[in-house]
Recover the amino acids of this structure.
């Protein structure tokens, strides 16, 4: 679908640009949110008539975004989720989850599309992403994902979490020690039986 952008859209175009987008993207996102209008000669003329107003609105949005930069940078984006023995999450952390965290932690409201995460987070750890408060105001943030607050604190302190390794090693050592000790006990019992079966000198004389 051909649309006219009424504001700057990251990786798509600047205000006033005519671009081709998928129909679903236009109908579900751009058009209902007023970020674009369908291309037509009438709408081109309408845009030109409103261009100064739209540009002023865009500048106001940029300034509002800049006022939230410090709040976003200082936000504690901590997500506690259940995970398996290897640190893989039961589920994932999505852009929607991060947008919700940002609102709770910093009272900054963004849409999930403004969270530049890429792929969903599927394991415990620290992850770098960006929040596009405005196409011209992009803030880098870190997202901490762990199974408990203690693990979150450890990640914040720069520690590396390990999963399952220590327990497995201890079990292997215990199993090895148990296996190594069995032949020695068997040999001792064999020696005792052998000693009992050998006649003493007194018994030999008596015979």
């Amino acid at each position: 679908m051909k649309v006219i952008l009424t504001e700057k859209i990251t990786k798509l175009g600047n205000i006033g640009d005519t671009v081709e987008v998928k129909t679903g993207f236009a109908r579900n996102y751009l058009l209902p949110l007023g970020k674009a209008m369908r291309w037509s000669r009438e709408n081109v003329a309408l845009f030109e008539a409103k261009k100064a107003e739209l540009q002023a609105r865009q500048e106001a949005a940029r300034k509002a975004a800049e006022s939230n930069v410090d709040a976003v940078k200082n936000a504690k984006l901590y997500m506690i989720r259940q995970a398996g023995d290897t640190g893989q999450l039961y589920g994932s952390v999505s852009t929607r989850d991060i947008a919700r965290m940002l609102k709770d932690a910093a009272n900054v409201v963004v849409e999930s599309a403004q969270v530049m995460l890429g792929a969903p987070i599927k394991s415990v750890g620290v992850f770098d992403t960006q929040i596009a408060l405005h196409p011209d105001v992009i803030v880098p943030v870190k997202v901490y994902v762990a199974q408990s607050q203690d693990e979150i604190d450890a990640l914040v302190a720069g520690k590396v979490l390990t999963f399952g390794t220590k327990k497995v090693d201890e079990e292997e050592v215990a199993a090895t020690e148990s296996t190594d000790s069995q032949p020695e006990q068997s040999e001792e019992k064999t020696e005792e039986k052998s000693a009992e079966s050998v006649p003493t000198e007194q018994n030999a004389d008596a015979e």
About this structure: The longest helix spans residues 165-197.
